[in-house]
Amino acid sequence: QGIPWLLPRDSAHFRSYTRGKAMLLGRRTYEEMDGWFVDQRPIILTRQVDYEVSHDGAAVPSVHEALAVARSWGCKEVVVSGGAQVYAAALPAVRLLVVTVVQAEVDGAAKFPDFQSEGDWICQRRESHEADADNAHALEFQWWRRVVPEEDPSQPS
Questions:
Q1: Mind listing the pLDDT tens digit for each residue in 134-151?
Q2: What are 82-94's pLDDT values in tens digits?
Q3: DSSP of 81-146, one letter per residue?
């Protein structure tokens, strides 16, 4: 089904941010993005143990294994790139969210999870863009960092 809009500004931001990084995607999202990967290494979260991934990628059954694969590749960051089930599965391990909020009402059941119910987050930066001749909808890029409680030195770890 894909993304319900064509926003070149968002696509450019996404390509720039993911360049040189591992990307965790669901199988359907990966297949929808076929031909897109140039400077990214896809890690596909799937129950199909024999799923073949091109683009120097890998298929894994869990987020834990995806992170292990990325580490083995020397990747310092894994960008979770959808779909909705992958976002939800990976959210507990996420420390930074880079979110695009599009000012549009769309049909569809897939939603990004309510991340603020999964911990304390602080919005560190926002970058707003109005709609224009190339981008039919206004959008905002947001950078959210998870607040990790400081460890109590008196408690055993």
A1: 999 999 999 999 998 765
A2: 999 999 999 999 9
A3: ---HHHHHHHGGG-SEEEEEEE------S-----GGGGS-EEEEEEEEE---SS-SS-EEEEEEEE
